[in-house]
Each structure stands twice: as C-alpha cells, then as structure tokens.
C-alpha cells in the first residue's frame, strides 16, 4: 500500500509517496504560498493528490502541519501570524470530499517525534530548533497532546523574563548577529564564522548554547526522559553540535537530576515530518479499527 504525505511549512510544502514500510518512493516540494490562506493550501494539496493518486495507487493522505491541531478531527485549531487565515482549515473533510481518500493531520513537531518511534524510541522529549522552538512529548510510542492539543510548546516557556524561543532559536541568534553587523543570511553562515574563530560569532554562539542549555535542563528536570531528541537545520552540524551543546548543558546541569538522560539528533532529518505523518495516519487507522 502507498500513501501520500505532506509536510506543510510556511515557505515550502514537501510531499512524498511512502509505502506501508515507511520507504519513500517519490518526493518533492512546492511553494506553500501561505499568504494566500487556506484555500490556496487546500487547492495545491488536492491537485497534487489527484496528480499522483492513480499512478501510485494512493490509499490515504497524511499531513504534517504547523499550528495547534485537532488531530482527532483533522482540523487546524490555531496558527500564528506566519500562516494567515490558516486556522479553521478542515483537511479531513475538504480533502476526503475532493479525493475520496481518508485524510489525517497532526502537528509538525509531533510528526517529527513520531518518526523517531520507528527507531526504537518509546519515551522521550523532542525539541526542534529553527525559526522558533517546537517540542513534543512521547509516552509509550504515543504523543501526549494535553487538554488543548498544545502540549510540548516548549518555545513558549519563560526564561529570564523572555520566551525561550526568543532567547535560543536560530532566528533570535541571527537577529543578534545582525545587530553586531555580521552580514549573515542563515545559521550555516554564522556557524562558519564561529568555526573560523570570529570573536563576535564565538561570543554570540556561546550565549546561544547557554540559553539553549537552560531550557533543556528545565525539561530534563520536569520529565527525566531517557532521551532528548533534537531536530532542525542546526543539527546538520551533527557531532559538533551535540558536543558543543553537551558542554553547555554539563556546565549548568545538576547531574543528580540529569542522571542518564542522553541528547541525540533525529534519525530522519528533513524527512521526519513526512514519515511521522504516516505513522500518525496508521496509528489513527488502528485506533478506529479497535
């Protein structure tokens, strides 16, 4: 059986045909055009489904989406200003009516976390670091959603009188770099300066790691997880990123409470949202059948 998965982002939407063994058969991306609102997002999604439905014998549609998601009914309950007129999008009804395919939706970071359950992880915390900071909580291979389906919004935690994501996201790091006249377009360029021992970049990134470590320590104290799994473009530094972050964490953490918690990087990288969307889709099918 094949399924079509979408990972909707503010700028681009990724899609992939994935079989029931979670192998990607075909994938690509296209501009989301989020500023045009939910009608445009639904239109492009439906067109892509119709384009691939018959040739790949698609059996269902799995969507990873930003925002607070009513995952049981397939509706976007809340979306921030980066996705105008997106709240209220009913993917489950609109896409099913247009394509006759069962459609499920889950929050994008929750999907990323669900992909990690395929890697033998069943109890862990997920943190994604990018424009903001997202999170997910996994117990026994299932997402803990909370009463309003918004559990895991770690970036909203208040640290030093600021939101954690305003202190330790890549976006906040780049904003500070530009205040110091570093002409960098993205995090990769800033970390290149850091690796070249640029003193301004080194000081800014040291502060970034310290702020990131504060939030991670708080989460470890709260949940005492076996693993804290990290995602986002910054994790492309892989071992360098992990080593640098571990140094920052070890500098401030109380080892008696940290215990044997391990920091690691997500297995599927950029494909995590797509694969996790299908994990959610198949989990929901199993729930309905039971």
Please provide a brief summary of the model.
The protein has helices at about 40-50, 90-100, 110-115, 165-170, 170-180, 185-195, 200-225, 240-250, 255-260, 270-290; strands spanning about 1-10, 10-20, 25-30, 60-65, 70, 75-80, 105, 125-130, 135-140, 140-145, 160, 160-165, 225-230, 260-265.
Total number of helical segments?
10
Give me the CATH architecture of the largest domain, please. Answer: 2-Layer Sandwich
What structural class results from the helix and strand content? alpha/beta
Residues in helices, as a percent range:
40-55%
The radius of gyration over CA amounts to: 19 Å
> Going across the major beta sheet, what is the strand order?
3-2-1-4-7
Order of helices and strands: EEEHEEEHEHEEEEEHHHHEHHEH
Shape descriptor: globular
Could you give the count of β-strands? 14
């Amino acid at each position: 059986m094949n399924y079509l998965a979408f990972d909707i982002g503010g700028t681009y939407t990724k899609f992939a045909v994935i079989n029931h063994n979670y192998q990607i058969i075909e994938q690509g991306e296209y501009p989301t055009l989020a500023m045009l609102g939910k009608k445009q997002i639904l239109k492009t999604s439906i067109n892509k489904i119709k384009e691939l439905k018959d040739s790949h014998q698609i059996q269902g549609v799995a969507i990873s989406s930003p925002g607070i998601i009513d995952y049981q009914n397939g509706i976007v309950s809340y979306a921030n200003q980066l996705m105008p007129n997106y709240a209220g999008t009913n993917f489950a009804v609109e896409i099913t009516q247009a394509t006759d395919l069962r459609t499920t939706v889950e929050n994008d970071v929750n999907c990323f976390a669900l992909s990690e359950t395929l890697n033998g992880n069943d109890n862990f915390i997920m943190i994604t670091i990018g424009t903001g900071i997202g999170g997910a909580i996994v117990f026994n291979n299932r997402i803990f959603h909370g009463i309003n389906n918004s559990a895991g919004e770690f970036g909203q935690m208040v640290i030093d009188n600021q939101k954690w994501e305003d202190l330790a996201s890549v976006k906040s790091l780049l904003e500070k770099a530009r205040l110091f006249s570093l002409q960098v377009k993205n995090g990769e360029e800033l970390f290149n300066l850091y690796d070249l021992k640029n003193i301004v970049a080194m000081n800014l990134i040291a502060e970034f790691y310290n702020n990131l470590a504060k939030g991670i320590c708080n989460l470890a104290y709260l949940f005492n997880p076996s693993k804290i799994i990290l995602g986002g473009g910054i994790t492309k530094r892989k071992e360098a990123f992990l080593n640098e972050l571990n140094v920052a964490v070890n500098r401030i953490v109380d080892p008696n409470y940290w215990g044997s918690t391990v920091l690691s990087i997500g297995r599927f990288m950029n494909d995590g949202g797509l694969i996790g969307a299908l994990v959610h889709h198949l989990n929901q099918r199993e729930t309905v059948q039971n």
